[in-house]
Amino acid sequence: MRRDIFTEEHDAFRDLVRAFTDKEILPHYRRWEEEGVADRAVWRKAGEHGLLGMDVDTVYGGGGDPDYRHHAILGEELARAGVYAPTLSLHNEIAGLYLRTLTTEEQRLRWLPGFCSGELVTAIAITEPDAGSDVQRLRTRAVRHGDRYVIDGQKTFITNGAVADLVLVAARTGDGPAGSAVSVFAVESDRPGFGRGRRLDKIGMRAMDTVELFFDGVEVPAANLLGKEGRALAYMMRTLRQERMMIAVAALATAERVFEDTLEYCRTREVFGQPVGRHQHNRFVLAELATALTVARSFTDRCIVEHGAGRLDAEEAAMAKWWNTELCQKVVDRCLQLFGGYGVVRDFPVARAFVDTRAQTIYGGTTEIMKELIGHSLI
């Protein structure tokens, strides 16, 4: 279906992403799932194809195009292919936002060329064993000593943590509330005292490395502070809007792909002498899902345009995130049921989606937190 928010140039970019996915990711993906991490080489391949730093200025090796729709297309195509590693969208949309907007010229020259080429992989380290959405509970601390900061603490659920060369770390720089006492630091992974823990054994998204990180007296120069000291919470609030759109876009694309596969199965698989989709109950299920997906697509495309124009507010991003992730769960669950026994065979995309998408209603802020945010804005 042609979507009027995209141009022919966007269609060509979508073709590029699909070709890259087919050639450089899908042939290796099962092995990556078994090993728990994607090959480093695929990051450099992504850089060569212009899929990293699309919105970074060309002087640093980026694409120089601020059009958010390229991010949306990349996220959609990876999701439709059932791909969660390499986490190009996290690298581009979240880490990239920090590195484009909070850095000095010296910092940009240090990090952005590698960011765009794939030579430098990034990760975001906010969550801790006792602090997820509640950043007031962060315990990782950065203490200034002259021209350096010394960082001590622990992070968990860190995507890209096993391969990252540069980790953006939220750490306390004061004793007050998080809004004035937490800062963001860029920490190179080869610094003494930086350690990687075990890869977490997740039920899904197994090719996406997720690890614990440890900071034991890690010294970083003051020049590695991003933005201003004590402003991390404000920076997080801005990036969360983009992160939630990133998740919403991927969730809906996944649901649409699973539904398309299921519709084809229901047209061809026969039960009691007629196709599965000919039975009235199943027709009703398909009708409900098709309607819900169509409504969600309309709202999501509007959000993509509004976000690209800088007009999307935090509440709308939260709406898109919780609605699309919960809808994805519903679609995948109903579609798996329609597949019958084949629905639990991992060779079928619906089975893989059943475990791979479950975390979508959790990371980036749980559904319950999204409702709290929206509810507070109303009252």
What would you note in describing this structure?
Helix 5 (88-101) packs antiparallel against helix 6 (105-117) and helix 10 (314-339) packs across helix 11. This protein has a four-stranded mixed sheet with strand order 1-4-5-8. Strands 2-3-7-6 form a four-stranded antiparallel sheet, with no helix packed on it. The mean pLDDT is 95. The protein is an alpha+beta fold. It folds into three domains: 8-120, Orthogonal Bundle (Butyryl-Coa Dehydrogenase, subunit A, domain 1); 123-229, Beta Barrel (Butyryl-CoA Dehydrogenase, subunit A, domain 2); 234-378, Butyryl-CoA Dehydrogenase, subunit A, domain 3 (Up-down Bundle), CATH 1.20.140. The protein has helices at 8-25, 29-35, 41-48, 69-80, 88-101, 105-117, 178-181, 232-268, 280-308, 314-339, 349-356, 367-378; strands at residues 122-125, 141-145, 148-159, 166-172, 182-188, 194-199, 210-221, 225-226, 270-271, 274-275. The radius of gyration is 21 Å and the shape is globular. A hairpin with a 2-residue loop joins strand 2 and strand 3 (148-159). The protein contains twelve helices and ten strands.
